[in-house]
Amino acid sequence: MQYRNARAGQTALAGMVVIFFVVFTFAVPSVWAQPRWGRPRVPRAGACFYRDVDFRGEYFCASEGDDISSMPADMNNKISSIRTFGDAEVLVFQDVSYRGRSERFDSSIRDLRAEGWNDRLSSIRVGPRFGGGGNRDRDDDYRSNRPVGGGRLDDEADRIVRRAYQDMLNRDPDHSGLREYRSRIIKDGWSEAQVREALRESNEYRTATTMSRGKAEDIVRRAYLSVLRREPDSDSSGFVEKVLHDNWTQVEVERELLKSSEYRRGRR
Asked: Global pTM?
């Protein structure tokens, strides 16, 4: 009888050891997996989160499928840019435990200030882009608020939008612009020409392309510095008028300066 009780006790003890081992094995990594500022290797599919804009400063990374329900104290509300890799997208929340205001980012964000999210992230989910592959069941968790499309269609739409922004505005699209025009292409069947026409009607394009006296003077100044290696004087006013009223470019101003006696004297 004593032998049986001893065996039963040993069996119970062994079971407790197994349970403790399992709990320890699965619980401890979740603690170790808490993000830390540094300069780790970037994931093949996932995202990295940076202290500063333009992907600068210290950062931490998360792989596709990682969830951070509560940012550590030294990281909470201290992220200023996000870089995505592979087919990943990021779902960010203003409060812990995936609560409060949220936003989905399926491309890199150089400056979260432009998106209204600078230093406001308290919990994060990194998942596969809808239509980009990965675990289908998990993909379902990331579908809400996602524009219709996916995979190659999304990629082609993004290329069209980025090309139009570069050609028309000389910059990459911000996240809201990328999302808006991607949706127009996929859902409304917009062509690249329609995207460009919409950008041409924007205030940013009009401001950049409308000639002012200040812009004309700057064009003339650059031409003087390039050809005569000096600042323009009062005689340059004629060139300013040509730029303003006859649409002269810097090249045309430089061409005239190359004909000047001052330039010819300088070459002797």
From this structure: 0.44
At residue 136, what is the residue type?
A: R
Eight-state DSSP code of residue 99: E
3-class SS at 216? helix
User: Cβ distance 61 to 47 under 8 Å?
Assistant: yes
Spatial distance between the Cα atoms of 125 and 13, rounded to a whole number of angstroms: 39
Q: Do residues 88 and 66 make contact, with C-beta atoms less than 8 angstroms apart?
A: no
Helices (H), 86-135: none
Edge-to-edge strands, sheet with 81-85: 56-63, 46-52, 81-85
pLDDT tens for 92-106 read 988 888 888 888 888
pLDDT above 60 for 208 = yes
Please give the single-letter amino acid code of residue 138: R
- Domain boundaries, given as residue ranges, for the chain: 1-32, 46-140, 151-209, 213-267
In CATH, what is the architecture of 46-140? Sandwich (2.60)
Q: Which tokens is 167 given?
A: 């050609």
- How many degrees, rounded to 5, is the angle at CA 223 between CA 218 and CA 229? 110
Please answer whether residues 11 and 5 qualify as being in contact, where contact means their C-beta atoms are separated by less than 8 angstroms: no
Can you spell out the DSSP letters for 109-150? BS-TTTTT-TT---EEEEEEPTTS-S-HHHHHTT-TTPPS--
Residue 64 CA to residue 174 CA, distance in Å, equals 23
